[in-house]
Structures are given as structure tokens and as C-alpha cells.
Amino acid sequence: MRQPYRLKNKRYGRFAESTLQMQYPFLDLSRPEFPWNQQLRSAADRVIESGRYLHGPETEGLENELSALCNTERCVAVSNGLDALRLIFRGYIELGRLKPGDEVIVPANTYIASVLPLTEFGLIPIMAEPDPYTHNIDFDKVDTLLTERTKAIIPVHLYGSPAWDSEMMRSLKEKGILVVEDNAQAIGAEAATPGFRGSRTTGGLGDAAAISFYPTKNIGALGDAGAVLTSDSELADMVTVLANYGADRRYHNITTGYNCRMDEIQAAFLRVKLSYLDDIITARNLAARAYDAVIDNPAVLKPLILPDEKQVWHQYVVTVENRDKFRSFLADKGIGTDIHYAVPPHLQPCYKENLKVSLPVAEKLADRIVSIPIAGISPEDSRIIGRIINDYRP
Ligand SMILES: *Cc1c(COP(=O)(O)O)cnc(C)c1O
């Protein structure tokens, strides 16, 4: 029996208090049928009995597996995705490659964690409009944002689709602009990279990348965890130092750092989940393709399936007219939904006084996007949900 499903988001009026028996909850992280459950229990036992709870063999093993996946020289396992981004930007500042006042281009429709490390370290976020069809940064408009102070760009592979334009990236690299991927949502995705040598896998495309293993991500820890990926050994060394109080060896602090360690038990859990990465990606692609084949409603714009890329469908996000009505229509039929993200960072109370910008594409999307179930959804589930969506009238 599934538990009654509670829509948590208080902002959405009548959804707020409703406790509904959802046949298709938006996300259910604790299903007895998950194939990894028993292995997670064994992994926990292994760590409990080992007596090594930090910086042990599981963490090292995970780092090796992640750098092999993303084709990077180095991986530093850290506490969470936000810290991974903070360590990268603080690291570049320590190394003298960025300085306060430098401008960093970041998509306007991302989660706020992509922006927080910039303002924390005095970097200036330059919010870029998304493409309304891919929801990723609109590379055709990036040129208009470049100034002599532009020193970095954060492609956010939003919803699991690679944000990449090889020609643009080549020209940014020629200008010495650092490319820091926010790969929180796209582990295992592959970009189309014509003319680019090396990795196509997100997390290994730019100069450095952050991954999040927040429980809802495609590979989720049973708590918080994240990782920094890079082939730049200077940056990797600095990130390691910063994540360890600023110490390059025991009791020798070369800078003022943090404690951003990953727990050994989370590393052990993540190695189990990571061994299912291909299955997870395949299942999400099958569900997304089934949605794509069935949904046929002029009031519902489907996300693009990109034939040259490998998408990992962290979210399946449709754009609808009259979103509240759409969500309650689906909720009445036992289908949970969510919004990623209802309020863009530049309109959040903490930023709206300082980041006074008008971003009509991002703002319009924020009012119309809806994420429908994709995690743990079979193609048959997708077809059922898709047919219900076809009955929606705005
Ligand atoms: C989840 C997420 C983060 C932050 O990761 P945490 O592990 O939750 O700190 C950063 N950026 C994006 C795009 C995310 O989705």
C-alpha cells in the first residue's frame, strides 16, 4: 500500500492542505520494490563494521568511479552540490583565476544554488535567458551578455538535458572564460559535441563541474552528498584543501577553509546506486518517450527529445496554460506534480533588490512549467498519465 501523498508546497492555495491518495505520486523515494534496497543495507553494514566513517575506501572508490564516468582526471567527493559549487568558485579565487567583481553568466531559470556561490564570493551573476523549448541557457543570446569582465559561465544541465553549444564554448574558451558545469541534475547525460575532442559526458565537458546527490536527484544519497569533477589538478588540490579546513596536511592551514567532507556511508550508498545508473537512465528515457508519443494536447507543450544527445530526464517538464487548473485536474485523478522552479533566483526576496533585471522568458516559463512524474514511472504508467493529460482543457 502506498502512503497517502501530501503535496507539500504551501504556496499553491488549495494544494496546500490536501492529503490525497495519489496513485501516481510525483516522487516516492522509499519503494519496497527498488532493486538496490538490499544492497544499501549491506553497504551500511559494511561501513558500520569498518570503523572508517570518513575518507575511507568507499569515498575513494566513488571518486574513482565518478571520474571514470565523466572522463576527468580528478574527483573530490564533498558534502553536497551547493558546497561543490562553492568550493570550485572559492578555489578559482584562491588560485587567482577569478576575483571579486568578475562577471559570471548563469541561466535565470536555475535553482538558486547555482547563484548563491557567486554572490557569496563577490562575483557578479549575469542572468541569461533560457531557450523556451530546451529550458537551457539560450546560447544565441550569450554574446549580448559578454563584457571584458566576463570570466566564467555556468551551463546548468537543467532537467537532465545537456546545456552545450560547442561553437559557443570554443569561442568562450578562446576568450579565457571558465566553464563551470552545474551537473546536479544530469549525471550520465551526453552532449552533442561536434568538433570537440574528449568527453561528451556532462561533468567532463567544462573546466570543472559540480554534482549533487540530494536524495531526489537521479543518483540520490540517503542524505546530502556532492562531488567536484575536474581535470585541473591545481583546482582539485585547492578544492581538497578548502574542503578540509584549508589544511594541505594535518594541522597546517594554508588558507581559511571549510569542512565539506562526504560521509563514508553516503559514498557506500552512492556506489550501489551508481551501479544502476544505466538502468535508471533507460527507465527514464522509456517513460519520457512514452509521454512524448501519447501526449497530444494543444494546451500542453512537451519538452524536446534531442536526437543527438543523451538526456537523463531528471524532470519531465511540460509548459501549460492555466497551471493551477492543470495541477488540480491531475491531482483529482491521483497524479502528483511539482514545479521546478516557481520563483527564479532574481525574484527571490534575497536577490530582488540587488539583481534588478527583467527576464521575460524565464519569468513566463516560471509561471507555466509543471513537472509530471518521471521517477519510477513505467512506460505503461506514462501512457495512462499521458492520456489523462490529453483530456485537460485549460
Ligand atoms: C540540487 C541542485 C543543486 C544543489 O545541490 P544540493 O546537493 O542540494 O546542495 C545545485 N544546482 C542545481 C541545478 C540543483 O538542481
What does this structure look like?
It is built from eleven helices and 14 strands. The chain has 394 residues and is an alpha/beta fold. The strands form four sheets. Strands 3-9-8-7-6-4-5 form a seven-stranded mixed β-sheet, sandwiched between helices. The chain has a three-stranded antiparallel β-sheet with strand order 12-13-14. The longest helix is centred in the C-terminal third of the chain and has 18 residues, at 277-294. Pyridoxal-5'-phosphate binds next to helix 3.
* Count, helices: 11
Strand proportion: 5-15%
Shape: globular
* Sheet of most strands: 7 strands, mixed
Q: Radius of gyration over alpha carbons?
A: 21 Å
Order of helices and strands: EEHHEHEHEEHEEEHEEHHEEHHEH
Give the strand tally. 14
Bound molecules: pyridoxal-5'-phosphate
Structural class: alpha/beta
Helix proportion range: 25-40%
Mean pLDDT: 93
Distance between the termini: 33 Å
| Uncertain residue segments | 1-19
- Strands of the widest sheet, in order across it, are 3-9-8-7-6-4-5
